[in-house]
Amino acid sequence: MTEPVDxxxxxxxxxxxxxxxxEAIPWxxxxxxxxxxxxxxxxxxxxxxxxxxxxxxxxxxxxAGIVTLGQAAFFGAGAYTVGILAKQGIWHxxxxxxxxxxxxxxxxxxGSGLVLLRTQGLTLLMLTLCTxxxxxxxxxxxxxxxxxxxxxxxxxxxxLFGRFEFNxxxxxxxYLYVLAVLFVCFVFVRMLVYSPFGQSLRGxxxxxxxxxxxxxxxxxxxxxxxxxxxxxAGVAGGIWAQANAYVNLGTLGLDRAATVLIIxxxxxxxxxxxAFIGAVAYISLSHFLAxxxxxxxxxxxxxxxxxxxxxxxxxxLGIAAALRRPAHRAAS
Amino acid sequence: xxxxPLLETRALYRNFGALAAARDINFxxxxxxxxxxxxxxxxxxxxxxxxxxxxxxxTTGAVLLKGRDITGVAQAERVKLGIARTFQINRLFRRLSxxxxxxxxxxxxxxxxxxxxxxxxxxxxxxxxxxxxxxTLKLSGDAARRISELPYGRQRLVELAIALGLKPEVLLLxxxxxxxxxxxxxxxxxxxxxxxxxxxxLIIDHDMDLVFRxxxxxxxxxxxxxxxxxxxxxxxxxxxxxxVYLGQASRG
Amino acid sequence: MTFGVDVASMLxxxxxxxMVLFIVSVGLSVTMGLMGFVNLAHGGFAMLGGYAxxxxxxxxxxxxxxxxxxxxxxxxxxxxxxxxxxxxxxxGADELDQVLFTIGLVFMMIASVTLLVGxxxxxxxxxxxLRGQLDLGILQYRAYSVVLIAVGVVIVAALWLGFERTxxxxxxxxxxxxxxxxxxxGINIARLFTITFAFGSxxxxxxxxxxxxxxxxxxxxxxxxLVYFLIVVAVGGLGRVTGxxxxxxxIGVLDFALKxxxxxxxxxxxxxxxxxxxxxxxQGLFGARAT
Lengths: 332, 252, 291
Description:
The complex is a heterotrimer of chains A (332), B (252) and C (291).
Chain A: H1 8-15, H2 25-36, H3 41-63, H4 72-87, H5 94-116, H6 121-141, H7 143-146, H8 172-194, H9 196-206, H10 208-213, H11 218-244, H12 254-267, H13 274-292, H14 294-310, H15 315-331
Helix pairs in contact in A: 2-8, 3-8, 3-11, 3-12, 3-13, 4-5, 4-6, 4-11, 5-11, 8-11, 9-11, 12-13, 12-15, 13-14
Chain B: E1 7-16, E2 19-29, E3 34-38, H1 45-53, E4 60-65, E5 68-69, H2 75-80, E6 83-85, H3 98-110, H4 124-136, H5 152-164, E7 170-174, H6 182-193, E8 200-204, H7 208-214, E9 217-222, E10 225-230, H8 232-237, H9 239-246
Helix pairs in contact in B: 3-4, 3-5, 5-6
Chain C: H1 2-35, H2 42-59, H3 64-85, H4 95-116, E1 133-135, E2 140-142, H5 143-165, H6 167-177, H7 179-184, H8 189-215, H9 221-224, H10 226-236, H11 241-261, H12 266-280
Antiparallel strand pairs in C: 1-2
Helix pairs in contact in C: 1-5, 1-6, 1-8, 1-10, 1-11, 2-3, 2-4, 2-8, 3-8, 5-6, 10-11, 11-12
């Protein structure tokens, strides 16, 4: 066996998946929030679910480069899975319920991905949009199961581990439950993006033609990535339905799909932690501003998007990286 | 019984509507060959490369690799069988490092790419092989740099590195030095010079200096068909080739 | 007989709606085909134009026709400025950046109109000669719908002539088919883009005004019908005037008929049809097959 090559680039690649100390910060903050703001745990839960949803989008958009406007299709699929099963009295247990939500969303992702991902660009964008709109319409039509426009509320969700109740007024259980699920999903996605599979997704994002020319089964990889992303979005939707004990058409709408896109891009896509930064920035601002000055909030948000698209293509984390890079270069 | 050539096409036709982009092409590439494919613009050289790599299927005719019919074999499978190519215009992973670019190709070849549950860096075999390949191309100094930060000439070298990472038996070089400023072109030429002899190389180019420097055999294509094949000396001496092609190419 | 009348009236209503869809969407088709730009703000220009027309009539004493002209000119001018200053920076950029930029722009349009005019629906009073019924022999029909159809036919004929018979039209077609080739022929692409973009936005404004009678006109208009406009463009093919026309008629009639006979699920049917169609022909029903 030959000696390993000792080169800074090789070492950087060999070690890039190692945990950094700062990676503990978001989790410590999330735990700190639990103790510091017991009155705002509902807000915190919403925030954590949004992070999870944005991470699912990051996998397809940030890593595989699939521009989709239909990610809420999977969020909604997960949410309605939990909602319908609970309302019909079929399934109440939360953790297995999430697994079912992931399964259903993954099936939707796999089925639609299999046909949609043959296309690219504008057509793909349209198709993701249409698929989501179709699901929304279907949910609206299946009134007997989905509650139609009004949705399903007061979902009977069993206590976690048979012990911890989901109390809508004091959502301590919800908060910790969502945090734990987010952690598990995050660890999974982190592993994925640093794996050779994740590297090949970046390759597809950067140059699909070349990936074909190196013999990669591009479509298969994309469908797999899309399916996994859908499963995680389904978990996010399912847990959202469990935490709020309701589900409505809004879980499937363009609004939700556009919002999560904005959040991810605001934080920085293709960067793992962009979802955290974006969700904190967006949800906090919208929580305080949108209630008081909804129109000004929309105006400011629009301006922000325009500025990001024109000048700061990689969001908050992208700006931070750009500020750091010249220093790096001077040092090397 | 003679051994079949490494790569062979038999009576290959390809029509795009009324246009015959490939007409009755019978072509042989021998093991270890240094073969050049020349011809005026629109002669069908790119179509021919696409037919060999499986991007385009022939209307009729067959492509054979070591005597095996691979006409129906998909592009990705042909790569695994040992046919690699570079592109006339760089098709690189622009926002990734040079090392990552090569890693992707090597990982694909050794079957590491589908792996999801271990970090890419843990495949030291892939990292090391990629690094060594960069060393042989004198690119290791740039290994950590993004493609988008490299001068064009060095980007062309990465094109070559990715193809070599696939350990091909047949390497198709589509205008390898295209767009490279003349001051940098020697690094490409040197790299082609040093290609291992066990790789059969087919260079598609306009650049007569490059073609006559490397090629031991030249095929001239005109309007979708093979016009002449021979040694460089035969091709240079053939009056009709000069008339249809070399005369026009004096600019290059 | 009644069935025949039913079908005729359904066709008229659907075709009238289709004309509005066409007038709004044709600009979107050309910008997407010509510039390869994902312009999600196109509905915003229709909304702004509709507002300009409604306000001009109510507050500034314009008649219906002159207000339409005013809305067209104003929207075209505003969009020309935006195209030069902002859009042009993103030609050739990632789809994601274009999507974000235009979503941001729509948000700003919606918020600005809400702040300046208010969130409520703007009634657009039709002049008396357009109200009431018109006797078409076999049936009485709303005069406005008949006029809309006539206007639509005139516009599509004019656009077709402009596209097929003028120098500018030839340049646009050349640039849609092969931009590099067009550039090498000495066509001033930047100017061409600005002109087409402004014209397309102006058309959207016209559509916003003409369609306000049955689509309504409030700030959310900019996003509410966007999926419909996009579907028309996707079905009709990028950069194809006649394709968009047929697609708009098809969708208009289909939507009208489905809403009448299958009030539940009509929209879902259109989405499903669009998905199937795009999978079958990604370039749209009437678009040229990409090579």
